[in-house]
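USER:
I wish I could look at a protein chain and see how it folds. I am handing you a single protein, as its sequence and its fold in token form. As I understand it, each token names a local backbone shape. I hope you can help me see how the letters and the tokens relate. The protein I mean follows directly.
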Amino acid sequence: MTIRWLSAFLDFPADSFSNEVTFWRAIAGSTVSPARGPDRQFASLEPFNGDPHLRVQRVKDGPGGVHLDLHVDDMKPATAHAKSLGAHIVSAASDLVVLTSPAGFGFCLVPWNGEHERSRPIRWPGDTISIIDQLCIDIPAKLYDAECDFWATLTGWPWRQGVMPEFRNLRRPKEMPLRVLLQRIGSSTISGHLDLASTHPDEEVARHEGWGAKVEQHHRFWTVMSDPIGRRYCITHRNPRSGDLTH
């Protein structure tokens, strides 16, 4: 199985969809594509250069969340590969297979449509440079090792140990627009969130607060934020071009 592209999907409840899209479009520095899908429930956050790797979906039930789309050449062998590793199929069609990982994190297999050009980071007034470039899967401690091995085997990208013991990341090919970070957490429920890399996190935080976000926690390398409806994400002190931590 060869993964050609990655997309992060933000799943928004219907009653907050418009406001959430407006906020995330603003912090990504993007425009919004025309709606698509049978109920016009999908759209892409279009970068000013390169191919989109951030997409949005209006969901009918539940609080929403975030999931990962793997763009592949051939859906059938990719589905069989995922299933052989312990993934569970939720639904399957010729152009979309919805699955969960062994620990329960949602992801989809979709056909590759030629996406190949990574978007460049945005330079904001004041010379801050940033980009939303990472999906972090928050994994309960007792499931952590097995889930890390699942994602490494599924993608074919070995994981490497992070600077801190509770983090590992997959060694993505250089053309991939998203990093996948694997975090060990104390909670019993798996979840996920997006991370933004910034050259000047303090300026980035202030700008996001101006758009309605709130600071929840400060850490050495990242700040935990919540968007206007309480969805968590992180502003991290990383190089927006390489994705590496800035010490």
Notes: The chain has two domains: 3-111, 122-236. The helical segments are 17-28, 75-84, 144-155, 201-210. The longest helix spans residues 17-28. The mean pLDDT is 96.
